[in-house]
Write the structure tokens for this entry.
Amino acid sequence: MFDQHFNDEAQFLEEEVRRVDQELRRFEGMLRESHKQRVQLLRRLNAIHSRTRLLPDEVLSLVFQSIALPMKKYPDDCLLGPKFFPVLLGSVSYHWRQVAWSTPSLWSTLRLDVPKAEHLQRSAAAMLAFCLRNVAFFPVTLTLKFEPGSRLSDIDHISEVLFRDENTRKIRNLHLAHPPGSFLSHCFCPFSQLLELSIQAPRDMGECRSPLFAGAPLLRRISLSDSLRALVLPWSTVTFIELKRVSILSALHCLLHASPSLAEFHFTILDHNHEGNPPQMPDTLTFPHLECLTWSFRPNQFSDLFLRRIRLPVLRSLVWHQNDYGGGREWVSGVHIFFQNLSSAPLTTLTLSQMFEYTRMFPSAPEPSIIEYIYLHTPHVEILRLDDLRESSLSNALSLLIPTSSTVEHHLPKLRAIEVTDCSNDYYLQGGGTSRGYRKILDDHVLFKVVMLLRDHGTEGLGLTIDFNGGVTRVEWPMELKEALRAIVRDGANISVLEKGKRVDWL
């Protein structure tokens, strides 16, 4: 009986061994089949990859560069934008990765968000270092957008990479959004190739007596926006300055330290409340090479000081913002002096934006309106742009171009083109418990003035462009107005009607 027990157990184990051997043979067959499938898949994959190797590396590199769109073509949240584009190419194949990694221009435009979280900032710093390494000696355009509330201690990983001498020397264009003052205070490194600098909304700026970016001898363009105080920047080396939504004191400080070679100066104001004393200015402040000026006029002593002292003998383009803020007649004389001094300048392009007529405050005033005074002292204007004017100001601006019995000559006798933009007035209608937005296009009497103006100048002598920027071009004008416009067009008048920059069938 004992022998029988061992025989039964041995028989059972032998059967189990045979079963396991059978399972192994089945798995070995499956493994061989999997190897075959793997070989087939690799062949198909290699066939696909082989297509990426049809072009020589030099040609493929040129293709990559040609399809890399400029940064402005991508939305802010686009993951396939310039900052990820080379990485996307490198994920296709090993060959593409080799070509992308060895094409410096693909890495020359980088836009990074700088977070406060350390693990995210480490990733951003690694990407910055990776790009600056791959770019070799190709000039770099770098945009850094800092998270609000960050301090230098929060962004030390980015700072450690950026402020290395071998990296700052590669930066040609630098754009900083919401940079903390502690970060800017370290910008004394040798940015020896920096040509363009843009700073938006700097925060927590302390007292700084030495110019930021003093180690940028080639710097030629500076753009500063949303700054509550004047920054000490190397104004004396640049030829292009743009100040957006900054105080007028900052603008005057900039002009006092600007280079005589300044060619363009663009200024839009932060607000119209100013504190402090006017800076010490010479009796005349002359910029012999300034050809383009944008100025936001406000009725205050600072703007008046600028208008009375500035001299622009070669000015060719002027954008004059005069927003709807009240003021006394005492500030108008500064405007008169400014345009009197422009009478001999070769000013050929004039833009009047958001004009507010002071004579509306003094209906009985015998002197010319502000617009008429501007026309009288800008006789060389060839292109007139009327941008976002109020209905009364737009009507006046057009009416003054039509000679009357009391005028012998045209205002702006050399005028050859008028461009009217943002010419819709906003209305907000309520009724029946509902509300809706509505945009009312140019009134009939304003368009009749356009008809008279074109007829008077001769249909072939004056071009007109009207851009309803965001407005609705379907209007119901009187039939006689439409017929008059059609007749002028048939006679050869050049009338272009645009909506958001695209030509539309207006008539």
Summary: Residues 69-238 form one domain.
